[in-house]
Design a protein that fits this description.
The protein is α+β, with helices and mostly antiparallel strands and 229 residues long. Helix content is 21%, strand content 32%. InterPro entries: P-loop_NTPase, Ribosome_biogen_GTPase_RsgA, RsgA_GTPase_dom.
């Protein structure tokens, strides 16, 4: 079938809007002082991928490839957690030669941090500024409760809302009962989803949160509700 542009309308919102920018991020961007390059305005952007000393970002004019500026290099040398990470909002400076650098990382609202491999005291930011952290574990063959508990601890410490997703509910003898036991044992206060791919179904225990309310103040009702995917 030939491609029909009318069936695929262009997005009506900017890339940054779709990436989650709001007035608070724009205000934080305005408050940060960075190097000033005449004729090349700095940009607000969000990190989409990171490499050693470089990262891909999404700005209002689209994706860009960037390297770390001098101030970011200095900050990382002082604190490994200052490394630009996926989800970070950053200040990008375009240069006359076409090169872009990340000159500052805006203060994070949330951050998923794990201990650095090798037992050092420093950590590693896995993702920043996320609203929900989903911990996914299969009900078959045997769910690892210790792993669920460890990952949920990371999620709670991040400041985001943890959510436990238990897959293969259709393969377990009594998936929802097993999920209820797991939720009570290691996921208290956390919404739990049970997926059943072959049945096209997901059962969810919803958390009640008021807008802007910290996730640790959310309450979880005991009842389970089912809905079709």
């Amino acid at each position: 079938m030939p491609f029909d542009p009318s069936l695929h309308p262009a997005p009506t919102t900017s890339p940054l809007t779709r990436a989650g920018v709001d007035d608070r991020w724009r205000a934080a961007f305005d408050d940060v002082e960075t190097v000033d390059v005449a004729g090349h305005d700095r940009l607000l952007a969000r990190v989409t991928r990171t490499d050693r000393g470089a990262c891909d970002v999404l700005a209002d004019d689209g994706p860009r490839r960037t390297t770390w500026g001098a101030d970011v290099v200095a900050a990382v040398a002082h604190d490994p957690l200052a490394v630009p990470s996926t989800g970070d909002w950053v200040v990008v400076q375009p240069w006359p030669d076409g090169h872009d650098t990340v000159e500052a990382v805006l203060p994070r609202r949330t951050a998923v941090v794990r201990a650095q491999v090798g037992g050092t005291s420093s950590g590693q930011v896995l993702a920043a500024n996320v609203d929900v952290v989903a911990v996914v574990e299969g009900l078959v063959p045997d769910p690892d409760l210790g792993r669920i508990e460890r990952f949920l601890a990371l999620a709670w410490d991040s400041g985001a809302m943890p959510r436990l997703v238990l897959t293969k509910g259709d393969l377990a003898p009594d998936g929802e009962a097993l999920a209820a036991d797991i939720g009570a044992e290691v996921a208290a206060g956390c919404p739990v989803d049970v997926t059943a791919a072959h049945e096209g179904r997901v059962s969810t225990r919803f958390a009640r949160c008021s807008p802007g309310e910290p996730p640790w103040r959310c309450s979880v009702p005991p009842a389970w509700a089912s809905r079709r995917c």
